[in-house]
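Can anyone check this?
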Amino acid sequence: MHLVSPSPYAKNAGFAGASRRKCSRIFRCHPDDSIVGHPKPGYRIGSGPQVLMQYSGMLIRRAQPEDALAVAGVHVRSWQAAYRSILPDDYLDQLRPEDRADKYDFANRDPFKPTTLVAISDGANPAILGFATTMPVTDSDMPGYGELCALYVDPRYWGEGLGVALLSAAHAQMFEQGFRRAILWVLTGNARAEKFYRNDGWHSDGISRNATVWNIEVDEIRYSRELSG
């Protein structure tokens, strides 16, 4: 997503921390949200949102409108932890999930708008542990590119492989939507995020920008990679 104004989804630059454990399997879903494949025993499909992936006691599915506050909580906590040495403390300390939740539009199914996937703990009391958002790039000089707009994991679960699982699901989602190349933007100075994405095959293409995100100006570096099925 080319940010010319503040976005509730920005930015993947906040991701910090994921092991390189491999994901289990991806469930390919029909447009009508039915599931092709067999979720693990005991999981009730019912009429709920589609499940895209199972991974180490976690499910990944499309975000629903009722997820907004929980997603906002992950978003704010991740910013406050990952950007503590990059952005001013007083700015980070005043961020509130309640101020962010109503900015998301998880009911929209327009393929040209942001699509968010959430990682949910699979148990008696499921909780949202992280999320990833993708959409088509709107820049006229990059036709056919997808964009990883955001990838955040709750800081309490950094290092447990959730970021790797969400990134794999985001790749699959963009590929299913017809994209064969993708970009993302990383905050300048976020060395941990840059290392994470380089390990996944992303590379800096030498493009940088200054953007206003959540009412603060930030400098960003662009990364890109090819996608495969």
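Reply from J.R.: I decoded it. The first helix runs from residue 68 to 82.
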